[in-house]
Amino acid sequence: MENNYKSGFVTLIGRPNVGKSTLMNQLIGQKIAITSNKPQTTRNRIQTVLTKDEGQIIFVDTPGIMRKAKNKLGNYMVHVATRSIEDVDVVLFLVEPDTYIGAGEKEIIEKLEKVKKPVILVINKVDTIQKEEVLKSIAAYKDAYDFADIVPVSAKQGDNTKELISVIMKYLPYGPMYYEEDTLTDQPMKQIVAEIIREKALHNLQEEIHHGIAVTIESMKEKNKVVHVNATIICEKESHKGIIIGKQGSMLKKIGSTARYELEHMLERKVNLQLFVKVKKDWRDSEFLMKNFGYKDDED
Fold first, then answer.
1. Is 5 exposed, middle or buried (0-12, 13-18, 19+ CB in 10 A)?
2. Rounded-to-integer distance, Cα 277 and Cα 119, Å
3. Contacts of 265 by beta carbon, 8 Å cutoff, 6+ apart
4. Helices 131-144, 103-113: crossing angle, 10 deg rounding
5. I need a labelling partner for 199 at 20 to 30 A (CA). Which of 17, 23, 62, 124 fits?
6. Strand order in the sheet with 226-235
């Protein structure tokens, strides 16, 4: 098998909110990475696995590369995203279908100049514009960097994603199968559950609060085909705690019921979800607390 079997690691990079997690979920055919229309949704490096007859692609989803980090959590996210470029076989650089190349994109292109890996430009969200506009966007980016390939897609609709997989396979080295065929992710189930709860909080809370939220799973066990989950939403201020709980607990119930619905669908089990809220002031500037909440550097 190894003589003509391809395998390798592929990172998705780009500015926050260009659709990296949505694309990764679409490519592997299942939701693993959480998504929202808010920046900084992805905080950790997440690996997912796509196994085909001709090869295995391990996708590495990363936090969006921000221009200026405001705290230690921000620095951690930039470090995770930047380092992933060096550790992989192929880089997917996701952009929106514009002809103007902004400062954020230019900064990423500068980082790519130092990388000796094939870089595939993925122009996402092509379902939102006319075909002629896509061609103009391709032309603008062609002048900015020598991309190995350029593939326009719609991560949301799934348009042209099969073509993207074929293009990735073209650039992967020959090698062994790294994961069993039925593996979808390297993420522990507790981590996925915590992220789904955080996603539902992101969807329901206003911006200043959601940036300061983390979720920890205190316990998770199955009994009589029911999965019992106790989870804590961490926030940075007492006033935020009140908003997360809501009037007579209404907001916490809303977050809990939407999370439970998705968890039951994913786990194919009934879920009993208990949510609590705790305040940890300025946790995003505390390396100790960041590590406690799952934001650990692989090099540590």
1. middle
2. 42
3. none
4. 50
5. 124
6. 214-223, 226-235, 270-279
Give the pTM: 0.66
CA angle centred on 245, ends 239 and 250, rounded to 5°: 135
Contact, 274 vs 263, CB < 8 A? no
Query: What separation, in Å, do the N-terminal and C-terminal C-alpha atoms of the chain show?
Result: 36
Does residue 229 contact residue 259 with C-beta atoms inside 8 Å?
no
Radius of gyration, CA atoms only, the chain: 20
pLDDT tens series, the chain, 300 aa: 446 899 998 988 888 778 888 898 898 887 665 454 444 444 456 778 899 999 999 888 765 544 454 555 555 555 555 566 677 899 999 999 988 898 889 988 988 888 888 999 999 999 988 888 899 999 999 989 999 999 999 999 999 999 999 999 999 999 988 888 888 877 778 888 888 888 888 888 876 666 678 888 899 999 988 999 999 998 888 888 998 999 999 999 999 999 999 899 888 889 999 999 998 887 777 666 666 656 555 443
Helix, coil or strand: residue 218 = strand
| C-alpha pair distances (Å), 239 with each of 128, 207, 261, 279 | 38, 14, 28, 9
Collapsed DSSP state (helix, strand, coil) of residue 181: coil
Strands (E), 52-134: 55-61, 90-95, 119-123
